[in-house]
Amino acid sequence: MTTASSTAATYWEPLWSQGRRYRQLDDIENRLLDDRLGPGRGRPALDIGCGDGSLARHLARLGYCTTGIDCSPSAVALAAAQDTGSGHEPIWRCMDITTIDLSALPEPAYAVITCRLVYRWIGDKAAFLASVRQLLAPGGVFWVVTEIAGRRATNDPALHRLGITSAEAELLTSGWSVVRTSDLDVLRCYALRP
């Protein structure tokens, strides 16, 4: 397991190591994902910010040869600890996509790249999107699930700002030939194709 050293890891590692857990995948989100991605047929997939590995494992069940990366060693260890030994588990790497040399990834290109509940926290979104485009195979899908600012039913202004703004959403969706979205309460799912 490669280790990440970054500002992101400094923030996320204590949260994961102290037992913090995040919104779990549900049946509705899984069905949307299955519909937008289809069967893997052995093609490579990359889950950026894999956390406990639930999305990466779902991709593997769909038949993708999946790599899950996260900047938190504790998150990667948690994901790996749930492997069953079936031989179809994802590859787990502790890496920060915003600071690594992309050639350090197991594959030069991916049919699917996922980014669930991570895009909001990326500092340089334009550079991140350039990296994703470089890694996405022709005809591939970039699957992003992110909260949209202002959707939470709360009076706490800090919670209203947790999602991405309309300008950040526009940056995310510009330059793709196909943009499909689906809303799930405070979240929006994006299926983006070059």
Short account of what is shown:
With 194 residues, the protein is an alpha/beta fold.
Give the topology, please.
Elements (H helix, E strand, L loop, with lengths): L6 H11 L9 H11 L6 E5 L5 H8 L3 E6 L2 H9 L9 E4 L15 E7 L8 H11 E12 L9 H4 L5 H8 L4 E7 L2 E7 L1
Parallel strand pairs: 1-2, 1-4, 2-3, 4-5
Antiparallel strand pairs: 5-7, 6-7
Strand content bin: 15-25%
State Rg.
Answer: 16 Å
* Content-based structural category: alpha/beta
Number of helices: 7
Oligomer designation: single chain
Overview of the structural elements:
32% of the residues lie in helices and 25% in strands. It has 7 helices and 7 strands, in the order H-H-E-H-E-H-E-E-H-E-H-H-E-E. The model is unreliable at 1-5 (pLDDT under 50). The protein is α/β, with parallel strands linked by helices. It has helices at residues 7-17, 27-37, 54-61, 73-81, 125-135, 157-160, 166-173; strands at 44-48, 65-70, 91-94, 110-116, 136-147, 178-184, 187-193. Strands 3-2-1-4-5-7-6 form a 7-stranded mixed sheet.
